[in-house]
Amino acid sequence: YLKRAVFYGASGRTLQGLQGAIFRKNPMLEVPRKLEGHLDDITLTGLPFNVFAKSVTEEVLGMGRCGVLVDRPPNGQGRAYLRMYTAESIINWRTTNIDGREVVEQIVLHEEKQRPESDGFGTQFYDTYRVLELTEEGYEVRIFEERQDQAQEFTETERYTPNIRGERFDYIPFVFISPTDLLPSVQKSPLLDLVNVNMSHYRTQADLEQGNYLTSQPTPYIIGQRNPEQADWNIGSGTIWFLSEGAQTGMLEYQGAGLSFLEKALDRKQSLMAMLGARLLEESKKTAETAETVRLRGNGESSILVSIADTVSDGLQNAMGWLSEWEGTDPTMV
Prior knowledge:
There is one protein chain. The protein is α+β, with helices and mostly antiparallel strands. The protein is built from five helices and twelve strands. The strands form four sheets. The chain has a five-stranded antiparallel β-sheet with strand order 3-4-5-6-7, with no helix packed on it. The protein has a three-stranded antiparallel β-sheet with strand order 2-1-10. Strand 4 and strand 5 (123-134) form a beta hairpin. The chain is elongated and about 105 Å long.
């Protein structure tokens, strides 16, 4: 039943299409000359800034949330860099009110690291948690790693306090990015409604394929045969059946409109997905449309894209401003 089902990948194609619409042109970023080389490897893993921005946008489009952290090696050596955390990696957070302003004072982030297997071959993945905390003394980072000898047991393995020329930060350099704002609160994914219809379409497709499988093979039947259990009923060319006097045979074949309802349901759900944003899957209009009709039909989708593009831009600008400050340059130049 599951293998016969076919998944109609409207959600993924829509996500790619929306991301492509946002990045029709490469993002523009003005940075001090000292930071220009950083843009070619903004994560210290070989990821250019443009690709990093696309990853952030894709996560916000798909999950409705992500986070960007500005960090640098704990030993103080090396430059600052950006790191993206997916929605699932942001485990916990806590805010407090300072002088009438809501400030994030703790964030818990999940990471996955790897180490060699005990025999020296292969790789063992294990969980770590990065705790970003704003204390009375300033910003500090603590790392908790899963013990190798005891699963789900964690010990603090590292603690450091990022600073600039000995001065600790009075903020956590982590920005939440959602479709409409930069607040920690969880928002609904822009594609959630489409994904729900897509999954319903998959289930209907599975029912239809199962029905086609069960009804597409004509089945022979015999009425009035004496002692049918003593016969070996093969079917096909060159096979002879010896029937009792008065016995009747025939073929059972499917008749009715049951499966056509499933086919119509698939068409309705594909149209609904197109209305919810899967414009790449919508057939081109056969008749002419007025400019006003096209404008009204595209306003909803454009507003979502513009909102996400603006929010991602603001979030990355904040992160680059912090990175510029960490590198000792004027963040107002970003």
